[in-house]
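We were asked to recover a plausible sequence for a given structure. The inputs and outputs are reproduced exactly as logged, with field labels preserved.

PROBLEM: sequence recovery
POSITIONS: 155
GIVEN STRUCTURE:
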């Protein structure tokens, strides 16, 4: 399925990000992140040819998304979120895995991301799908929290 855009996960519909959906992404970011990206920041990423957002919808409602941008050989993680009402259904594992061939097609050799030390759920998800913590950067986040630097090297 190399490079093929997925269309469904369970009963949900999978799409690229559309302009009209940026508001929903921004609202989810505000709901779950201490330092969310604003509508305008997401819009700028949306317009960039280097950015991909994979969006999962349940009848028009965004239930999960994963955004990344390809910079040289790396696909840098912008964010992945699963709506609180839709967790533990494998949605995060799905979006992160389904995005891998899309990133590879754009020339990336690996995903690279930063995860807060306190974010056990995300670290567990990544562990289950073959990502690795490669190092830590103290005081990486705005609130002084340490980041785990995580990678998934494509095979
Ligand atoms: C982290 C997050 C994306 C996980 O989303 P999710 O769709 O619920 O994750 P999945 O259902 O794909 O989980 C896959 C596996 O990861 C592990 N896992 C996921 N959430 C977990 C939790 N809260 N506690 C322990 N293990 C967890 C489990 O092994 C799970 O498999 P299982 O349900 O069969 O046991 C979600 O909690 C979230 O949106 N958090 C806020 C935003 C965030 O922190 N994003 C990441 C940083 S960019």
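RECOVERED SEQUENCE:
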């Amino acid at each position: 399925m190399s490079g093929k855009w997925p269309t469904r996960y369970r009963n949900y519909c999978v799409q690229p990000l559309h302009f009209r959906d940026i508001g929903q992404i921004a609202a989810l970011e505000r709901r779950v992140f201490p330092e969310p990206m604003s509508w305008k920041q997401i819009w700028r990423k949306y317009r960039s040819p280097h950015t991909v957002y994979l969006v999962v919808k349940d009848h028009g409602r965004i239930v999960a998304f994963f955004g990344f941008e390809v910079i040289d050989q790396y696909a840098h993680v912008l964010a992945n979120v699963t709506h609180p009402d839709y967790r533990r259904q494998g949605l995060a594992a799905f979006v992160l895995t389904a995005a891998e061939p899309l990133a590879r097609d754009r020339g990336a050799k690996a995903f690279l991301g930063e995860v807060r030390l306190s974010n056990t759920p995300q670290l567990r998800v990544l562990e289950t799908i073959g990502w690795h913590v490669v190092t830590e950067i103290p005081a990486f986040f705005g609130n002084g929290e340490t980041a785990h630097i995580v990678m998934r090297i494509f095979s």
